[in-house]
Amino acid sequence: MNRELANKKFAGHKQEGNPLKVNLPQTRRRNKRRGQLIVESMIALGVGVMGILGILGLLSRSLSLNRVVADNYQAALLAAEGVEIVKNIIDANQIDTSTVWNDRLNDGAYTIDIYTHKGALSTLLVGATTCGDTSMWPDSWLLKFDSEIGETRGIYSYHRGDSTRFKRCVEVGNITSDHIKVNSIVAWVVRGGGEFTTNVEDHFYNWRQ
Fold it and tell me: Is 51 helix (H, G, I), strand (E, B) or coil?
C-alpha cells in the first residue's frame, strides 16, 4: 500500500513538471517573434528616413533651380534694357537733325542705366573698348534696385536703392559710319560662388541717310 502511494506521488510530481517542458519552447517562439518585429521595425524606419531625406533633397534642388531660372530671367531683362537705352539715345539723335545719328556713341565699354540719356555717355566710359573678364568687374558696377522712392520705384540704376547681385556693362562698336553693334552683358554670382553671364547683342543702322 505504501509503495503504491509513493508511486502515485511520484507520478503526480512528474505530471506537474510537464507544463514547464511544454511552455519553454513557446517562450522561445515568443522571444523570436519579438526579435523579428524589432528588426522589421528598424528596417521600416530606415526606409522611411531615407525616403524623407530623398524628398528633402529634391525640394532643396528644386528651390535652387527656381532661383537660377529667376536670376536668368532677370538678367535677360536687364541686358535687354541696356540695349534699349542705347536705342533711345540713337532715336533721340535721329530726331535731332542738328546731331549725327551716332552722337555720344563712341567705341567703348559703358556702365549705363535708365538715367544715361539725360547726361553725357562719355562720362560713363569704363576706360576700355570691351567689358573684359566678368570676374574682374568691380563692385561699383553692381546695379541697385529702387523699391521705395516715389516715381522711380521699381527701377534698376547705379544711383539709388539697394545693391543687387547683378552687374552690367554695355559694349558699343562702330562697324561703319552707318552701322553700330551693341552688346549688353550682365554678370552675377550666386550663392556658392557660381558665376553666370547673359549677353544680348543688337545692331543699329543709320536709317536717316
Answer: helix
Q: Which helix (H) or strand (E) holds 188?
A: strand 179-189
Cα(125)–Cα(109) distance, rounded to whole angstroms? 6
DSSP state of 13: H
Task: Show me where the domains of the chain are located.
Answer: 58-205
pLDDT in tens, 59-89: 776 666 778 888 999 999 999 999 999 999 9
Tell me, yes or no, if the pTM score tops 0.70.
no
Neighbours of 67 (CB within 10 A): 12
Given a contact cutoff of 8 angstroms between Cβ atoms, the answer to whether 202 and 83 are in contact is yes
* Amino acid, res. 71: D
Instruction: Tell me the C-alpha distance between 115 and 103, whole Å.
Output: 17
CA distance 147 to 132: 30
Q: Which of 168, 167, 158, 162 is nearest to 146 (CA)?
A: 162
